[in-house]
Amino acid sequence: MLLLLLLLGSGQGPRQVGAGQTFEYLKREHSLSKPYQGVTEGGRLSDMKGKNRWWLQLSEDLWWLSEQVGVEEYELIYFLLIGVGTGSSSLWNLMGNAMVMTQYIRLTPDMQSKQGALWNRVPCFLRDWELQVHFKIHGQGKKNLHGDGLAIWYTKDRMQPGPVFGNMDKFVGLGVFIDTYPNEEKQQEAQKRRYSPGVQRVFPYISAMVNNGSLSYDHERDGRPTELGGCTAIVRNLHYDTFLVIRYVKRHLTIMIDIDGKHEWRDCIEVPGVRLPRGYYFGTSSITGDLSDNHDVISLKLFELTVERNPEEEKLHRDVFLPSVDNMKLPEMTAPLPPLSGLALFLIVFFSLVFSVFAIVIGIILYNKWQEQSRKRFY
Ligand SMILES: [Ca+2]
Q1: Span of the secretion signal (predicted)?
Q2: For 126-171, how does the pLDDT look when each residue is reduced to its tens digit (9 = 90+)?
Q3: 286 C-alpha vs ligand 1 centroid, how far in Å?
Q4: Distance 188 CA to ligand 1 centre (A)
Q5: Left (φ > 0), alpha (ψ -120 to 50) or beta: where does 318 sit?
C-alpha cells in the first residue's frame, strides 16, 4: 500500500541527472502538458479568492503534517486527498485573453493590447526543483516590431494582472523574462542617441529578477536596474521547438535555454545565493501593446530534484520568509518602526534632560567668564 502511494506520489519514476547523486521526479500537480485537462477559466475573482485561501491552508496543513510524521514528500498525503476527490480537478487557472487550444495554451494572440496568464493552483513546497518550459513566440511583425514577450513566475501572489508582462509590479518572488522588444534601445534611437556597441543588447533578451515586493520592474529600461543577469535568445518564428529551464538547487539559480534545435542546454544565467521561500506559485504571463505576437506555452514540467545536504548545508539552507539574493542589496520593505518600550522611552527622556541641564550649566559658566573678562578689559 505504502509503495503504491509512493508510486502515485512521485509521478514518473526517478530519473538520474548527470553523474552526481541528483534524481528528478516529475511533479504532476505543478506540471502541464497536452491534452490540457484540468485547466479552467479564472472565474469570478471573489469566488477564486475564497478557494485559494482554502487551498493554501490545506497545502500548508499537509506540509506541516508531513513534517510531523517524518514523511519528506508531503505529496504522499496530498495525492491521497486528490484521489478521493477533495482536491480541485483544476490545477491551473487561465486569466485574461489566455486560451486553451489542442496543441498549446495561447497566452496572447498576435493582436494589440492583449494580456493573458496561466497560474498553477498548488503552492510549491519543494526545496530543489527544475522547471522546464516549452514555449513558442511567433507572429507577423518584422524584426523588433513585435512584443512584448512572456514571463515565467515563482511568486507569493497569483492571478494579479499588471504591467510586468501582464503580471503585477512589486511582486514577491522570482520573475524570468523573455523580453522580445528593446524598449531602451528604441527610446535611444528616437532621441537620436547612439549606443556604444558594447552596451547594446540584441533582442529577444532573457533576464531574471528577484523581488521582495519593494522593487519596480523598469519596463522602459527592459528591467536593467534590477536584473540578476541575462542573455540574448533569438527565439521568434523558429520552425523547431524552443525550451527554457529554471533550475533551483541549493540556493543556486541557473537558467538555460535550448533554442537552436540541437536538444542541448546552453547557459544563460547563473546566480548563487538566491533565497526563495517555499509555498509560492508557478505561473506564466504575457502582454502585447502597440506591437504583438502569439505567445504560446506548450508544456510546463516541474521536477523535484533530490540532492544530498551535509549538516552544515542543512543549517545554512533553512527556510526564509522573504526572497533575497546574497551580496545584492534589495531595498528593505517599508515596515513601520517598532514602538518604543517604556524603559527605552524613559532613558531617552532622562538623558535628553541631563544633556540639556549640562548644556545650560556650561552656557552659564561661559557667559559669566565672558562678562568677567569684558569687565576687566573695561577697567
Ligand atoms: Ca522590453
Answers
A1: 1-19
A2: 999 999 999 999 999 987 789 899 999 999 999 999 999 999 999 9
A3: 12
A4: 13
A5: beta
Rounded to an integer, what is the distance from CA 81 to the centroid of its chain? Answer: 28
**178-216 tens-digit pLDDT:** 999 999 988 888 887 776 666 789 999 999 999 999 999
Distance 100 CA to ligand 1 centre (A): 26
Q: How far is the CA of 7 from the centre of ligand 1 (A)?
A: 44
- Crossing angle of helices 75-83 and 45-68, in 10° steps, is 130
**For 86, which DSSP code?**
-
Quote the ligand 1 centre to 324 CA distance (angstroms). 24
CA of 184 relative to ligand 1 center, distance in Å:
8
DSSP label of 237 = T
Which residues, 6 or more positions from 230, have their beta carbon under 8 angstroms from its beta carbon? 201, 205, 206, 207, 208, 268, 269
Whose CA is closest to 295, among 121, 157, 374, 178?
Answer: 178
Contacts of 201 (CB under 8 A, 6+ apart): 182, 185, 222, 230, 232
For 353-360, what is the mean pLDDT? 85
Q: Side chain identity at 32, as an amino acid letter? A: L
Between the CA atoms of 311, 315, 317 and 323, what dihedral angle is there, to the nearest 10 degrees?
180
Which residue spans within 156-280 are E strands per DSSP? Answer: 161-164, 167, 172-179, 205-212, 229-232, 242-249, 252-258, 266-271, 274-275
Cα of 220 from ligand 1 centre, angstroms: 7
Point out which residues pair with 106 in neighbouring strands. 99, 296
Peptide bond into 204 cis (omega under 30): yes
Over 80: is that where the pLDDT of 65 sits?
no
Task: Report how far ligand 1's centroid is from the alpha carbon of 162 (Å).
Answer: 15
Q: Distance between CA atoms of 30 and 91, rounded to whole angstroms? A: 8
**Contacting residues for 185 by C-beta, under 8 A, at least 6 apart:** 195, 200, 201, 203
The closest alpha carbon to 126, from 78, 54, 72, 61, belongs to: 72
DSSP secondary structure string, 315-364?
A: HHT---SS-EETTB-PPPP-PPPPPPPHHHHHHHHHHHHHHHHHHHHHHH
